[in-house]
From TrEMBL:
Native source organism of the sequence: Hymenolepis diminuta
One GO CC term, this protein: cytoplasm
Entry protein name: Imidazolonepropionase
Domain of life of the source: Eukaryota
Gene Ontology molecular function: imidazolonepropionase activity; metal ion binding
Keywords (A to Z) from UniProt: Hydrolase, Metal-binding
Length: 307
C-alpha cells in the first residue's frame, strides 16, 4: 500500500505506487511497507501501568482458579499487600522508568491511545505519586494518554468504605482539584469500584458526583462480580464509560442504551478469572458503544490488544 501524503491527519491518496496520483511533491520520508497493511492505532481502554514489585504468585493463583474476591481482598491477599507496599516504597523515578518501559511495550504492539488508572495505593500520598508519574508520561511521550484517578482502590486496614468515601469526597478530591489547577498533575477521569464488598451505590454516587462537579469524566467499574445496578447508576450520571459488565442485567443494558455511556469489555480478565462472559451481543444489539481493554496490571501482564 502506498500513501502519497498526510495533511492534517488526512490521507490524500492511496493505492499501488503506479496508480497513485502524485503531484509534484517532495517527500520528507518514504516508508516501504513490504506488502503489509497500515491500520489505525489501537485504543486500550483499561490499564494500570504503574506498580512496584510483581504478582507472579498471584497469577498462578488465578490460573489455579482463585476467585476475584480472593485476589482483590486487600486484607487477605498477601500478593496484593506486597504490590501495594512495593509501590508505596518505590521511588518516583524508579516507578516512572518501569512504567515508561511497559507503555513502550504496548506501543510496540500497536497501541497509540490508552487509559491509565492509578491503583495499588492504600493512601493518598501514593495515589498522588502515581498521578505525578502518569502526568509526566502524558507530557513526554507521543501517545494519547487519558489519566484516571481510581479513587481509594485499596481499603486500608482498620478502615471502612464508608469512611473512605467521606475522605475521598472531603479531602482527596478537593486537593486533587488544587493540584490540577497548579499544573502539578493532569487527570481526565474518575473511577470507583462499585460492587458488593467495595463501594456501594450510594457511596459511589457520592464520589462520582463530587468528581463530576470538578470537571472529571466518569469511567468506573460496574457489574464485575455481581449485579448491583451500577450500570443504571452510570446511565443516570451520563458516565463516559463503565468497565467489566460481566454480571450486567437486561435492565442495566436497557439503561445504557438510552445513555451515551460506553461499555468497556475486558475479555482477558473474563477468561483468566473464569467468569461468565458479559452479554456482549446483547450490549451491541442494544446500540451501546463497545470499547476493549487489556486490563494490563501487575497480575495480568497483557500488553497487546491482538494477542
Amino acid at each position: 500500500m502506498f500513501f502519497s501524503d498526510f495533511s492534517d491527519g488526512n490521507i490524500l491518496s492511496y493505492g499501488s505506487e503506479d496508480l497513485v496520483i502524485c503531484p509534484n511533491y517532495e517527500y520528507d520520508k518514504i516508508i516501504d511497507c513490504n506488502g503489509g497493511t497500515i491500520l489505525p492505532g489501537f485504543t486500550d481502554a483499561h490499564t494500570y501501568p504503574v506498580w512496584g514489585g510483581d504478582r507472579v504468585d498471584d497469577f498462578f493463583q488465578k490460573v489455579a482458579g482463585a476467585s476475584y474476591m480472593e485476589l482483590t481482598d486487600s486484607v487477605n491477599s498477601s500478593d496484593s499487600d506486597y504490590t501495594v507496599e512495593q509501590t508505596a516504597i518505590a521511588s518516583e523515578e524508579a516507578l516512572y522508568h518501569a512504567t515508561l518501559k511497559r507503555i513502550r511495550s504496548m506501543a510496540s504492539k500497536g497501541t497509540t491511545t490508552l487509559e491509565c488508572k492509578t491503583g495499588y495505593c492504600s493512601n493518598w500520598a501514593t495515589e498522588k505519586k502515581i498521578l505525578r508519574i502518569l502526568t509526566r508520561i502524558k507530557r513526554e511521550i507521543p501517545l494519547d494518554v487519558s489519566i484516571t484517578y481510581f479513587a481509594a482502590s485499596i481499603l486500608p486496614k482498620h478502615s471502612t468504605f464508608s469512611a473512605l468515601a467521606e475522605d475521598v469526597v472531603n479531602t482527596r478530591l478537593p486537593e486533587l482539584q488544587n493540584l490540577m489547577e497548579k499544573g502539578e498533575i493532569m487527570v481526565n477521569n474518575i473511577d470507583v469500584r462499585c460492587a458488593e464488598g467495595f463501594f456501594n451505590i450510594d457511596q459511589s454516587r457520592q464520589i462520582l458526583s463530587k468528581a463530576q462537579s470538578l470537571g472529571l469524566k466518569l469511567n468506573f467499574h460496574a457489574e464485575a462480580i455481581s449485579n448491583g445496578s451500577s450500570a443504571e447508576l452510570a446511565a443516570s450520571l451520563n458516565a463516559r464509560a463503565v468497565s467489566h459488565l460481566d454480571e450486567v442485567s437486561p435492565a442495566g443494558v436497557a439503561a445504557l442504551t438510552g445513555s451515551r455511556t460506553a461499555a468497556v469489555l475486558l475479555p482477558t480478565t473474563t477468561l483468566l478469572l473464569r467468569h461468565l462472559p458479559p452479554p456482549a451481543i446483547a450490549i451491541a444489539q442494544a446500540g451501546v458503544p463497545i470499547a476493549l481493554g487489556t486490563d494490563f496490571r501487575a497480575n495480568l501482564f497483557c500488553t497487546s490488544m491482538v494477542s
